[in-house]
Amino acid sequence: MSRSFDLYCVMGNPVAHSRSPAIHARFAELTGQNLRYERRLIALDGFADGVRAFAAEGGRGCNVTVPFKFEAPALAAECSPRAQLAGAANTLVFRPDGSIYADNTDGLGLVADITRNAGVALQGARVLLVGAGGAAAGVLGPLLQAGASHITVTNRTLAKAEALVQSHSGLALLQKTELLALTPQALDADFDVIVNATASSLAGAEVPVPASVLCPGCLAYDMMYGPAAQGFLNWARAHGAVPRDGLGMLVEQAAEAFLVWRGVRPPSAQVLQEMQQALESK
Ligand code: ATR
Asked: How far apart are CA 55 and CA 186, in angstroms?
């Protein structure tokens, strides 16, 4: 089908809450790219069919969100090394020959937000990654590549943290990063950067790590944003840490996806600032 713009979308379930259409529309406007970006609600057992249907419709690529990120690499003829390492993809490119390329920009988005937008160095930092599910798997590789000196992965189910550490041990060795898996009860040090990759606030649960992991002025980052991040951020603020939610990560992962699709880097810091201002004025 030929149309005057290139079509992209985000596929998920649920997907109504996604801010990606607004972010990509603004990127397109600011870079003069002629594209449209929509939301597609996909049946829980219908991801592969949804991708095929969107490609048949003339779609050029899509973002993939909960719960389909782990299914996405299986549809691809080629995966980027970072998608392979994460075992998950959030960005698909539909190539002209009909094949699919899968990438994962979540971790790059997190690292860009921490280092560029928050101005916190990861090089040489001691990092605590809380959680060992899909969200954590997507960011551990880029955190290692950002040059942290030490990363501990902690999770209430230790075996999952151990598996994540095991699958990243080669990269850790290459980066000369000390990489450990510990239960939350075994944590006995503080960290420069704490990243919450669990949905504990969303579940209304207690923060899953002791306050002793925080030191004054450390960065406490929740990969969620909005109400879902508030429990963790309030806890961090109350203990002298600098809280930050995942809105910047969302914008930066979108910027990396936009770059993959269009070959153009959008002004992500400007768009993040606009979104923060719009939320503050509500
Ligand atoms: P996601 O793709 O969002 O990471 P997931 O793969 O289901 O979702 O992983 C959820 C993560 O949050 C896991 O690390 C989970 O811990 P378990 O592996 O022990 O299940 C963690 N998590 C969820 N709810 C939690 C809670 N109330 N307290 C502590 N950890 C929680």
From this structure: 48
Tell me which DSSP letter residue 152 carries: E
Q: Who has greater pLDDT, 280 or 7?
A: 7
- Nearest-atom number in ligand 1 for the CA of 67 is 2
> Which atom of ligand 1 is nearest to 208's Cα?
29
Architecture per CATH, 6-105+251-266: 3-Layer(aba) Sandwich (3.40)
Question: Which structure tokens are listed for 241?
Answer: 């840490």
The CATH number, out of the four listed (3.40.47.10, 3.40.50.720, 3.90.580.10, 1.10.10.10), of the domain defined by the range 107-247: 3.40.50.720
Asked if the model's pLDDT at residue 2 lies above 70, the reply is no
Q: Any idea which residue has 């960290």 for tokens?
A: 191
First to last CA, the chain: 40
Residue to mutate (ligand 1; options 198, 202, 207, 232; most atoms within 8 A of CB): 198
| pLDDT, tens digit (0-9, with 9 covering 90-100), for 168-207 | 999 999 999 999 999 999 999 999 999 999 977 777 788 9
pLDDT tens across 217-246, in order?
Answer: 999 999 999 888 999 999 999 999 999 999
Contact status, residue 7 vs residue 57, Cβ threshold 8 Å: yes
